[in-house]
Specification:
The complex is a heterodimer of chains A (112) and B (117).
Chain A lengths: L3 E3 L4 E4 L4 E7 L4 E9 L6 E6 L4 E3 L2 E6 L4 E6 L8 E9 L8 E2 L3 E6 L1
Parallel strand pairs in A: 2-11
Antiparallel strand pairs in A: 1-3, 3-8, 4-5, 4-9, 6-7, 7-8, 9-10, 9-11
Chain B lengths: L2 E5 L2 E4 L5 E8 L5 E7 L5 E9 L2 E4 L5 E7 L2 E6 L8 E8 L12 E2 L3 E5 L1
Parallel strand pairs in B: 2-11
Antiparallel strand pairs in B: 1-3, 3-8, 4-5, 4-9, 5-6, 7-8, 9-10, 9-11
Classes of the chains: A mainly beta (112), B mainly beta (117).
Chain lengths: 112, 117
């Protein structure tokens, strides 16, 4: 089983739609959670951190469910510019190595 | 503000040739530094990380090596490249700082696209 699992997609949605991605992680000692965005042939860029109580940044809402070991990302009012691959990222502390573990990403294609 | 520079952006090398990719960070001291590789259509794989000068931890045994000769410089090397070394190599940094750092994300350089012929 992968440490961080995501549905690879693609999710094809029309402009203005609401779309949600889920991500599950296997290590219960996970400490920090993030969503990154990666455009084609570019480096990943931080989209938002995910906090225990859930958090919102404009059209983006992130949720964390520690009991079920999953995080989610909700995008409202999708824009063409939201088309990208969304990476679920987890840091766990038990190894002490301070690195992040990345999911393989979910591809989103917003269509006009 | 902090910036991270990585070069070259693109590299085409023959099998068996050596490799040196360089990454530098500006605007911060004693960062944690990382090298990742992303194969085409795949997720990111952590190769090396460093919490200080001369301190390198390897995640995946292979024919690559890393060095940190200065606080904000991280180098990825190989003596002899293999076809399987092709990929997108990314350097990243995160702030140093004990438990307080744990919620800090990593920030990536622009990446080096390496093709082995």
């Amino acid at each position: 089983r992968k440490e961080v699992e995501q549905d690879p997609g693609p999710f094809n949605v029309p402009e203005g739609a609401t779309v949600a991605f889920n991500c599950t992680y296997s290590n219960s000692a996970s400490q920090s959670f993030f969503w990154y965005r990666q455009d084609c042939r570019k480096e990943p860029k931080l989209l938002m951190s995910v906090y225990s109580s859930g958090n919102e940044d404009g059209r983006f809402t992130a949720q964390l469910n520690r009991a079920s070991q999953y995080i989610s990302l909700l995008i409202r009012d999708s824009k063409l510019s939201d088309s990208a691959t969304y990476l679920c990222v987890v840091r766990w502390m038990d190894t002490g190595r301070r690195a992040l573990t990345f999911g393989s990403g979910t591809r989103l294609q917003v269509q006009p | 503000s902090q910036t991270i520079h990585q070069w070259p952006a693109t590299l085409v090398q023959p099998v068996g040739s050596p490799l040196s990719l360089e990454c530098t960070v500006e605007g911060t001291s004693n960062p944690n530094l990382y090298w990742y590789r992303q194969a085409a259509g795949r997720g990111l794989q952590l190769l090396f990380y460093s919490v200080g000068i001369g301190q390198i931890s390897s995640e995946v045994p292979q024919n690559l090596s890393a060095s940190r000769p200065q606080d904000r410089q991280f180098i990825l090397s190989s003596k002899k490249l293999l076809l399987s070394d092709s990929g997108f190599y990314l350097c990243a940094w995160s702030p140093w700082g004990g438990q307080a750092y744990s919620n800090q994300p990593q920030h990536f350089g622009d990446g080096t696209r390496l093709s082995i012929l």
